[in-house]
Design goal:
The protein is α/β, with parallel strands linked by helices. It has one domain: Rossmann fold (3-Layer(aba) Sandwich), CATH 3.40.50.450. It is built from 6 helices and 6 strands, in the order αβαββαβαβαβα. The chain has a 3-stranded parallel sheet with strand order 1-2-3, with helices on both faces. A 3-stranded parallel sheet has the order 4-5-6, with helices on both faces. The relative contact order is 0.17.
Length: 164
């Protein structure tokens, strides 16, 4: 999850994260559009031939990014953030730069989903730490640390999509 118009460092991190997730055969779910974190994450995933990207889109048709394999058109606008969160095993917020990302983090914490803040500012970390309740909230400095947290700390049984 992340902003449509992020800082360049967050774009690079999202691209690398997409690649690392796809290398493990994990499905990469984003907001599905071509711009920002969504586009960069899918672009990174598509560096791996067998990757699968899923885009949960706000409109009723036609605004998916070119690297989205499966587009789900919700017609729900920003309300689709609930679908993004509830469909995910882990929510990774790449930079916390906008209200859409903030809402996804809040929804994930409310749903008791594990949340990893990648490259978040101290202020963002503090905000969500005070609101996390019983949810699992992690911080990662880089995409490799995100993968390590998923594998070693969360122990979430993420299977490759092509093993199903």
């Amino acid at each position: 999850m992340g902003a449509g118009n992020p800082a360049p460092a967050n774009l690079a991190a999202a691209r690398e994260l997409g690649r690392l997730l796809a290398e493990r055969g994990w499905i990469v779910l984003t907001g599905g559009r071509a711009e920002g974190i969504m586009g960069a994450t899918c672009s990174g995933a598509k560096q791996i031939a067998e990757s699968l990207t899923l885009g949960i889109l706000p409109g009723a048709s036609g605004d998916e990014g070119p690297e989205v394999d499966i587009a789900v058109f919700t017609g729900m606008g920003e309300a689709r953030n609930a679908i993004n969160v509830l469909t995910s095993n882990v929510v990774v917020a790449c930079g916390v730069e906008g209200p859409g990302t903030i809402s996804e983090i809040a929804l994930a914490l409310k749903a008791n989903k594990p949340v990893i803040l990648l490259g978040a500012s101290a202020a963002a970390r503090e905000l969500f730490a005070s609101a996390k309740g019983n949810a699992r909230l992690f911080h990662a400095a880089d995409p490799a640390e995100v993968v390590r947290i998923i594998q070693e700390e969360l122990h979430i049984p993420l299977r490759s999509w092509n093993d199903r």
